[in-house]
Design brief:
Layout (H helix, E strand, L loop, with lengths): L1 H13 L3 E8 L2 E5 L5 E2 L5 H13 L8 E3 L19 E3 H10 L3 H11 L1 H10 L14 H5 L5 E2 L1 H12 L6 H12 L16 E9 L2 E10 L2 E10 L8 H16 L2
Antiparallel strand pairs: 1-2, 1-9, 3-6, 4-5, 7-8, 8-9
Helix pairs in contact: 1-9, 2-4, 2-5, 3-4
């Protein structure tokens, strides 16, 4: 893994912003400032997904239940619900849209359904140290009041492993969550990879000057977990290439004999 470490070190040096990273392949791990807290952007949707499955398993609701979309929760930014007239949606579909197209309205409906306190209780049960849900998506007034959502690379690795390895969630829920991640439409870490080779699932997030991604890569009997968070990106620059190159370096290390 020496070449992989050297390549990641090089890419960190070339990154246009402040970067935190954690990666694991079997017993091998790499960390760079992995517990630094960042504004989470849409990465917060991963622990929300986990809590949705936890409440489903506890019988709080059925995934086939419908919920009405309140006007005050219908917001802009990422997603498709804002452009559709349909007024009620299955919880199962809200979960899928929250992840695959990062739908902010679907996320707000799930936050309303699950409860912010319950999501944070789940975050605590998961042992996430720097992750906190304090506001709904696109709630800029809350941001002005000092309420934001936070996470770190190490916490996102923990979330990915919870989804990939049954224990906190039942095996059936893990399978469904992995399928949702696999259908992700916005790729950074996985952007240069042939996603038909093995299992690949991810969740990204972005804000002005902020780009994050976390991914599970399963190929040739090996599994990698990668989380990359970047902020302080200058205007006109992007962290996407850094993430893509790190993803490719990890994949090459997994597939090189």
């Amino acid at each position: 893994m020496k070449h992989l470490v050297e390549r990641i070190d090089e890419l960190i040096r070339l990154c246009p912003g402040r970067i935190s990273l954690q990666g694991e392949i079997g017993d091998w791990s790499y960390e760079h400032d992995s517990e630094r807290m960042y504004s989470s952007a849409s990465l917060i949707k991963v622990p929300i997904l986990i809590e949705a499955f936890r409440q489903y398993e506890n019988g709080v609701f059925s995934l086939g239940d419908f919920v009405e979309i309140r006007k005050d929760l219908r917001v802009g930014g990422s997603g498709v619900i804002q452009a559709l007239e349909q007024s009620s949606w299955m919880i199962k579909d809200l979960k899928t849209l929250m992840i695959t197209v990062s739908d902010n309205t679907a996320t707000n409906m799930l936050i309303e359904l699950l409860g912010i306190d319950s999501v944070n209780d789940s975050i605590e049960l998961l042992g996430l140290k720097k992750t906190k849900l304090q506001r709904k998506m696109m709630d800029f007034s809350a941001v002005q009041e000092g309420k934001d959502n936070y996470t770190c690379a190490a916490d996102m690795i923990r979330c990915l492993k919870v989804i990939d390895e049954s224990g906190f969630l039942k095996e059936e829920s893990c399978r469904e969550a992995k399928l949702i991640l696999r259908h992700q439409q916005f790729h950074k870490i996985l952007g240069l990879l042939d996603q038909e080779q093995g299992y690949m699932g991810s969740k990204s997030g972005s804000l002005p000057g902020v780009e994050h991604d976390c991914a599970i890569i399963g190929v040739q009997g090996k599994t990698a977990y990668v989380a990359i968070l970047i902020d302080q990106i200058p205007e006109g620059k992007s962290g996407t290439l850094t993430m893509q190159e790190i993803g490719r370096a990890v994949y090459d290390a997994m597939t090189t004999v």
